[in-house]
Amino acid sequence: MAGLKLFRMTTSGATKVAPRLAETEADVQGLVETHMETLLGVRFLASEYRTGPVHGGRIDSLGLDENGSPVVVEYKRGLDVGVINQGLFYLSWLVDHRAEFEHLVRDRLGAAAAAQVLWSSPRLIFIAGDFTRYDVHAVREHQRSIDLVRYRLFGRDLLGLETVASVSGRSLAVRRVRRRSTVMAVKDGPSTALDELAQALDETLLGLGDGVKCVQRKTYRAYQRLRNFACACPPQKTKLLVYLKVDPKEADLVPGFTTRDVTGLGHHGTGDLEVQLRTFQDLDRAQDLFRASYAGA
Prior knowledge:
The protein is α+β, with helices and mostly antiparallel strands. The protein contains eleven helices and 15 strands. Strand 5 and strand 6 form a beta hairpin. It starts with 5 loop residues before the first strand and ends with a helix. The strands form three sheets. Strands 3, 4, 5, 6, 7, 8 and 9 form a seven-stranded mixed sheet that branches. Helix 8 runs antiparallel to helix 9.
């Protein structure tokens, strides 16, 4: 975001809007907590959560993301060389206190949400004025799901967020093995054309850019940057269903290409645009929709 230039356009000319940092760390925290679901795809649970007398810490924000993964959010007004270790300290506490977190989820979001907490992929999100190259290297060395997000304020009412680094905590080789075994586990027996299409979809979505993470749930597989951009359901008899974060009213649909507006309709995963894939030609046609959803995330 350091290279981003924002201008206010008027009939008399263009005026540059200078980026700035917040006055205090609490200002950043307040903005994000108030709009956490819109900004991060995370439902807000608690602020300044105390971790007890033994641990002696206080977590800036706790939340639950779109896939049910627990989330720790830590904020820094500017640059802080100790932010990574501090966040990992809190994430370790969270994993060791699952029952306490689930109790919090039950109180704030209900029993159904508490029963669906996904402990296989707890997340740590850092939001700061900047990060060093050492921070970026450090998160790639940890076996955790971590996002580094740089913020800037523009004018009185504009907030910019930029994902600097995003890691899932697993090596590429391990992810490939897990993906292959999960796809093949959908049904017994030899691979079919639909299985091959599912693997090609998986490779396509993961290959859209750096930092794409995959979260496996029982009824769908989510692909996310900072938040979900695609959710793929297990193969059905004749098709694959993919849900995208694309406004169905603004999608550039291809004639004869099967898509559906599912806004307000119940379905697995997240996203308002349903894409049905039956052939590799369908997969090729869906590329622009995939890229639009990825960009929006």
